[in-house]
Every structure is written in structure tokens, then in C-alpha cells.
Write a structure and sequence with these properties.
By secondary structure, the protein is of the alpha/beta class. Helix content is 28%, strand content 25%.
Length: 517
């Protein structure tokens, strides 16, 4: 059965992303738009508007426009939003890159996305320059001043006219985040202006973020959750976003207290800390009204424990990079939550639960793969028609790879994962990528990686290896030197053989069942 949203469809304007987000920014004047949490450095809405225009003008003066890609390799700082929307205003697409990436990972994304320019911070400049030299990046910009890159002010201070770009919202890309999708190596997710504009408008009925709200920007803006739900929705609605470049529990609690944060969009490991860490009691968090969890499953018990301790509504939503990201949300109204549920489909969204073997739709309380259709669904994967066809069918249904069920009242629940991704603290860790690294070790003959449940991280990567003359610590160190910290192998088990199908596909389910037993 096809399940419709309980909300009426919303009108989705045919405009560019920057025009939607900036629509009322100018009239908000000196109201803080973005604040750097650690230092208090502030960008007002007036300054935000001017900065976006200056960025777009500077890019246009360099011949950057429609069809071009600009990479941002930076933690959360107020200038991130200025650069992001400056690129969008110029008609280009932003490829957002995890600042924890190694040079190899960064180089891959720069080359795959065909980025022309790269923006970073002084701390990451050495890696940025090394990766840029191995790609087609024409110029590296840096926030502030650092030898070996062009200061961002050289781009913002050109004094040129803001370009008037003819953008086709349904066709032109605005962001190109990378996701492993249902399986495999990272792929560029082609999201149009219309995809993100749609998702911003779709989230209004269930979540009433407003201009009196202060929102903590701790989730990374390179990730679609932080990008859409925190940065873009908050700025569209006139809220103030307080950014954090990295998570530290003490700093996080101080910022919640000092800036009187009213809404926090988080991931389960942070909510676990809020529920259990004694240090929380040392801070006044009474301003916090709403906590929304996403990116990984949140148990009903943990949500209830955190909510009781903080006196806040703690609820859950669901989405994917491929859906811009939000598809389901619990409304931010008392009494509308249901333990463990991801909520209802948001407006303009259809869902169905499909038997992954037989392909037929199933009914209420029956488990199957969650399929989603709506205006927030991606255009496809960059330069990868095969992966696009696997994930997105001819009728516009996105096959999520997540096993779910819906109850008689229309509440959806994620039950298990059909896809192979490991979710470590909300980050996507593709087993295939780690297996490729493991197999590059001269003493490893074969390897497979699976998720293992972990209370703090949600899941951690565990490697099964066929090897001789090497110990588990050496293997974990070998991988750690070649991947971002959140992708590290956390456990190793030696086996005589990796179970595989006749076609050579690793039978991870066999290993997962063995681990659970």
C-alpha cells in the first residue's frame, strides 16, 4: 500500500536555493544569523546577504558559473554558509567534503566531482594543497590568511556586480555531497535547487523553527543533515545558528547554556551523552525545548531518558543524502511521539513497504524495504548510471535499502538495514572501502567488514581477515593510517575463509549472524 503524508501538500516555489534562503534575510538587518560558538564572532543577516553577493560576484569575475563545481573542505564556521550560498548564487554546485578526510579521500572527491576551486582553513591547508595538486583544482582559497593559498577576502572584495544567473531549479545542480548509497564506494549525489527548496518547504509543517529560535550547529554542514536541517532551514526562517567546528561535550554544553539554544538537531551518540554523563548537571539547559535525532536509529528508551532529564521533547526523524535528506519526522508537538518511530512522511511525500524478494507491497505491521517518492528525491548519482538505476526506478521510487514497517496509525519504524553501510556515530562507513584498504596489506589474503553494535557509536566496523604473520593491532593501525578517523577498524577476528556466494559476493549476513550468536 502507498502511504501518503498526513499533511496537505505544500506549495514549492520554482526558485533557486539561494533566493529562497535569502528571501527575507536583508530585512532582518543586524539580527545575528551565524555565531561562532567558541569565539562569539558574529555574522548578521545583513552581512550574510552582502557576503553571499560578494562571493557570487568574485566567482563570476573568475568565470565560474553554471556547470562548475566548488569544493568546501572545512569544519563548521559562520563563513561556511556565506561561501555555500555564494556558490549557489553564482549558479555553481558545492561539493561538501568531510574535513576529516585524508589526502587520498580528498583527492578522489575533487577528481570525481571535477571541482574547479577548493576552500579550506589554515589547519587543513597542507592536505588541501597536496590533493589540489593531484586534481584539476585551479585555485585554493583559505578562510583567513595562510601562505600557499588565496585569502577568501580576495574573492569577496572584487566589488563586481552580483551575477543574475538563469537557473532551471529542476535541472541545475546546487550541491554534490558524497554518499555510499545502498552499497559500494562513495558516489556524488546530484541534488538540484528544486530538491533542496522542496525539502526546506516540506519540513515547515512538522517542525516550526522560527526567528526566535537559537539552533546549535554542531552537526557538520558537509553532511546533508547539517546542511539542510540546520544551516538552510534555520537561515530561511530567520533563526540564529551557533556553529561548533568540532564536538567536545563540555564546549557543547557551555554553548547550549550561554547562547540559550532552543532547538538541537543531533545524532544518537550526543543524545546518549546528554542522557547519561554527570557533567550535564553542571549546566543550565532550561532553554532547550526540542531535540531531534537523525542519521542513525535512536531507541525509544534513550529518547525518553534524555527527555526526562532535560525537560525537552526528544524525537526522531529519517532521511538520506539521496532525499535532501528528510522524508519522515515526528511533529514537534507534545503527545505526537511514538517510542522508536521515525514519524510520518512529510508533505508531498509518498512511501511504501515492499517485500525485497518478491517485489510486492506489504501491509501494516509487515516488514519490507522502504521506498520513497517525492520532489526531494535526487536526480541521480554523478557519472554512475548503473548505481542510479539500482536505487531509483523508472516510476521515481527511491529504494532506500532500509527495512521498515508502518503501523495502523501511519507511524513508520526502521527495523533493520538491507544495505551494507555501517553507521558510526551517524557517519556512513562503507565496508567495501575498508575491505579494499585491508586487501592492500601484503599479508592479508582476504577480508570482510561488518557492523557490530556499540552503545556509544551505534555501530563499529569489525574486520574478518584471512592472514598470517600479522596481528590485529597492526591491521587496525594500517587501516587507521589510510582512512578518516571515524572509518577505523575497531575489532579484528582471524578466520580461515570469508563466506562468499557463487558469484564471489561476500556473504556479510552470515558473518553478522555469527557475530550476533
Amino acid at each position: 500500500m502507498v502511504v501518503q503524508s498526513p499533511y496537505p501538500d505544500v506549495e514549492i516555489p520554482e526558485v533557486s536555493l539561494a533566493d529562497l534562503v535569502l528571501e527575507s534575510a536583508r530585512v532582518r538587518g543586524d539580527k545575528p544569523a551565524l555565531i561562532d560558538g567558541p569565539s562569539g564572532r558574529t555574522i548578521t543577516y545583513h552581512e550574510f546577504t552582502l557576503g553571499v553577493g560578494s562571493m557570487a560576484a568574485g566567482l563570476a569575475a573568475r568565470g565560474f558559473g553554471k556547470g562548475d563545481v566548488f569544493a568546501i573542505y572545512s569544519p563548521n564556521v559562520p563563513e561556511y554558509a556565506v561561501a555555500f550560498h555564494g556558490v549557489a548564487k553564482a549558479g555553481g554546485a558545492v561539493t561538501t567534503i568531510n574535513p576529516l578526510y585524508t589526502v587520498e579521500e580528498l583527492t578522489f572527491q575533487l577528481n570525481d566531482s571535477q571541482a574547479r576551486y577548493l576552500l579550506t582553513i589554515p589547519l587543513f591547508l597542507e592536505q588541501a594543497n597536496e590533493a589540489a595538486a593531484a586534481s584539476k583544482v585551479e585555485e585554493v582559497f583559505v578562510l583567513g590568511d595562510a601562505e600557499g593559498a588565496t585569502p577568501i577576502m580576495a574573492l569577496l572584495g572584487t566589488g563586481g556586480e552580483v551575477p543574475q544567473v538563469d537557473i532551471d531549479p529542476k535541472e541545475d545542480l546546487v550541491v554534490l555531497p558524497y554518499s555510499s548509497g545502498t552499497t559500494g564506494l562513495p558516489k556524488g549525489v546530484m541534488l538540484t535547487h528544486h530538491n533542496l527548496v522542496s525539502n526546506i518547504m516540506q519540513c515547515e509543517p512538522p517542525h516550526a523553527t522560527g526567528e526566535n529560535d537559537v539552533i546549535i550547529g554542531v552537526l557538520p554542514f558537509f553532511h546533508i543533515y547539517g546542511m539542510t536541517v540546520i544551516m538552510n532551514i534555520a537561515l530561511r526562517r530567520g533563526a540564529t545558528v551557533v556553529t561548533m567546528p568540532r564536538f567536545d561535550l563540555g564546549d557543547f554544553l557551555r554553548i547550549l547554556q550561554d547562547y540559550k539554544v532552543s532547538r538541537a538537531y543531533l545524532v544518537p551518540p550526543i543524545i546518549l551523552a546528554l542522557a547519561k554523563q554527570p557533567v550535564v548537571e553542571q549546566f543550565d539547559l532550561s532553554s532547550l525545548d526540542i531535540i531531534m535525532s537523525g542519521a542513525a536509529p535512536l531507541s525509544g528508551d534513550l529518547a525518553a531518558e534524555a527527555g526526562k532529564r532535560l525537560g525537552a521533547l526528544v524525537m526522531q526523524g529519517y532521511g538520506l543524502t539521496e532525499t535532501s535528506p528528510v522524508t519522515h519526522m515526528i511533529p514537534d508537538e507534545p503527545g505526537r511521539d511514538r517510542a522508536g518511530s521515525i514519524g510520518f512522511p512529510i508533505p508531498n511525500t509518498e512511501c511504501k513497504i515492499v517485500d525485497p524478494v518478491g517485489g510486492q507491497e506489504v501491509g501494516a505491521d509487515e516488514m519490507g524495504e522502504l521506498w520513497i517518492r517525492g520532489p526531494q528525491v535526487m536526480k541521480g548519482y554523478l557519472n554512475n548510471d548503473d548505481a542510479t538505476k539500482i536505487t531509483l526506478d523508472d516510476e521515481g521510487w527511491l529504494h532506500t535499502g532500509d527495512m521498515a514497517k508502518v503501523d495502523e496509525d501511519g507511524y513508520f519504524f526502521i527495523v533493520d538495514r538491507l544495505k551494507e553501510l555501517i553507521k558510526y556515530k551517524g557517519y556512513q562507513v562503507p565496508p567495501a572501502e575498508l575491505e579494499a584498504v585491508l586487501l592492500s596489506h601484503p599479508k592479508i589474503a582476504d577480508a570482510a567488514v561488518i557492523p557490530v553494535a556499540d552503545e556509544e557509536a551505534g555501530e563499529i566496523p569489525k574486520a574478518y581477515v584471512v592472514a598470517q604473520g600479522v596481528d590485529g593491532g597492526e591491521i587496525m593501525n594500517y587501516v587507521a593510517e589510510r582512512v578518516a578517523p571515524y572509518k577505523k577498524i575497531r575489532k579484528v577476528e582471524f578466520v580461515d575463509e570469508i563466506p562468499k556466494s557463487a558469484s564471489g559476493k561476500i556473504l556479510r549476513r552470515v558473518l553478522i549472524d555469527r557475530e550476533r550468536a
